[in-house]
Amino acid sequence: MARQGAESEKLIYAMVARGTAVLAEQTSYEGNFRDIAAQCLQRLTFARDDRFTYACDGHTFTFLIHQGYAYCVAATEAAGREIPLVFLEMIKDDFNKRYTGGKAATAAANSLSRDFGPRLKEQMQYCMDHPEELSRLSKVKAQVCEVKGIMIKNIDNAIHRGVQIDGLVTSAELLHEQANEFRQEGTRIRRKMWFENMKVKLIVLGIIAALILIIVLSVCVGHKCT
């Protein structure tokens, strides 16, 4: 269930680009979000993976750069920084899984909006409806990154000092456990999204069946069907 006040915590526009070429985008709102996102996209550097957030007129434009691709979401400032970043990570994973094998590398500008646009819309709505779950997922990932950073630093120190790294086994085990926890949380969220989508589809099918039944009964009553 969404939090109170979630009306103002909106994800408004989402986009995936290869370099500066927009491949897919989605929005359900009126405004110049596309234009602002395109202007921000021109200023980005794709030399390394990174994250950027631009603020404009009560909105934020958050970018996730990964392997030459830019993932962007525009949100109201009330949405904060955590939800947009988790959304971008989810979209990045979905996009890479769907377009493996080089399809995204050769796709023309805006050619993937029809295919991937509905997924962007679905994920934006899910993130707005379940902020608490996203917050937990973000915290678990932050813990994994923190432990990984500590391990890398310790290994570098050990190498520089020429000592054995047997003492880092405990940290490695902790990283493994937290990584498993992160994967399990992500699986649970995806499974919940699937059940919710099925529930909506079943409700729609039930409504359609009820309408057909009403129409049939109306025709039968008018013609005195037996």
Fold and architecture overview:
By secondary structure, the chain is α+β, with helices and mostly antiparallel strands. 60% of the residues lie in helices and 17% in strands. The chain has helices at residues 33-43, 82-98, 103-106, 113-129, 131-161, 169-223; strands at 11-18, 21-27, 50-56, 59-66, 69-76. Helix 2 packs antiparallel against helix 4, helix 2 crosses helix 5 (131-161) and helix 5 runs antiparallel to helix 6. It is globular, with a radius of gyration of 23 Å. Mean pLDDT is 80; it is low at 1-6.
Key structural traits:
alpha+beta, five-stranded antiparallel sheet, 226 residues, 5 strands
- Helix percent band: 55-70%
Task: Name the overall outline.
Answer: globular
The SS-based structural class is: alpha+beta
What percent of residues are in strands?
15-25%
**What is the N-to-C order of secondary-structure elements (H for helix, E for strand)?**
EEHEEEHHHHH
User: What's the main sheet like?
Assistant: 5 strands, antiparallel
Mean pLDDT over the full residue set: 80
- The low-pLDDT segments are 1-6
Strand order of the largest sheet: 2-1-5-4-3
Radius of gyration, taken over Cα atoms and rounded to an integer in Å: 23 Å
Distance between the termini: 47 Å
Number of helices: 6
In total, the number of strands is 5
